[in-house]
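Narrative of activities, Objective 1.

The group set out to show that a structural description can be obtained from nothing but a protein's sequence at a throughput compatible with the screening campaign. Below is one input-output pair from the validation batch, recorded exactly as produced.
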Amino acid sequence: MRSRRAARASLLVTCILGALALASPSRAGFGDALKKLKDKTDKKAADAVDKAVQVAEEPGAKKDSTAAATSTQPSKTGTAPAAAPTGADTKVAAVSTKFDYVPGDQVIVADDFTQDDLGEFPVRWKAIIGNFEVAESGGERWLRCMSPDGTVRLRLPEAPELPEYWTLEFDFYGTEPMEGALSVKGMSKDGSTVWEANWPSNTSLAFRNGEFYSTTPLAGATGPAGRHHVMLMARAKGLKVYMDRERMVNAPEITSQTGPVMALDIRLWANTQPMITNVRYAEGCKPAQDLLATGKLVTYGIHFAPGSDVVLADSAPILRQVAAWMQAHPTAKLAVVGHTDNVGAAAGNLDLSKRRAASVARVLSEQFSIQPDRLAPEGRGDTRSVASNDKPEGRAMNRRVEFAKL
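Output recorded for this entry:
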């Protein structure tokens, strides 16, 4: 009995000292407050100590539990995390109208970390705090946080502030425990946080800008852990945040006492090595009064399953706009033109672009009630590049769908 009490006391002291060592008062902020609220729950702390004592006293208990604690994490060549929700089996027209995310059309940074060496820090990022490395899992590259707390900053063109219209999206992967594991922050020139989106706060995404605060649960999610697709869209003074085809934040006016946002930081805060990949930052696109005022609409908002012609559900916002335009112009006809980058064989790219254009036309016809004879699908493969295919940003610009008046 005396040994049990001594073990409990020793473990409790160790936990307290460890927490104090990891604390960083100078970086305390919105995410810190959320996490500390959870960490200060006395009952949970006591339960954790009890469990640790029981394990330590069990016959044959392992002295080192590090491997067990991290065994679920993908290694550099481990099993890939489950795919983010894509909506391949969801009707495009069934997606909520609240999901109105349309990616920018001028790609500034596109990073899937394939141009970086495994185990190294990626060149398109700046390390703020913590230790990060490029890891591989099931054929995908990830930026993985190796520290309990880490922050990276996307390297953007030097400017006094971000453009009036911009979008940022990426895939996030985390495993429990992960309360407050992901934060996306808009930073001013003096290093102050202008706004911050934090996931998860319990099972919700929390957002704060000045006095504006909101928490929104992710509907239909079985839990915060796993893979999620995160999207941010700035429109003039407003900012919207989305996750997995759900709008989580709609802040109509971002305010700042310390100047405009000029940098974007991503903080990964968990002992379970959370990761990000498929990062895309782009300028635009501005809301259009007339989608085809110039006779042609170039869009990056129509997505397909990899190597497939299946139109994904997150293509709903732009297809909904095209359908509305066609309904407002009942005599108009459009060519639907698919384009690819130059990865793969030219013949295969041409065939894929044709099939994808046909799929877009079919979705508009079958799900948005546009007469089939008003749409003329065609594919150009990689023959009409608008940017160099030598860099990921150029390839991202070349993968597009165009609508042109006939």
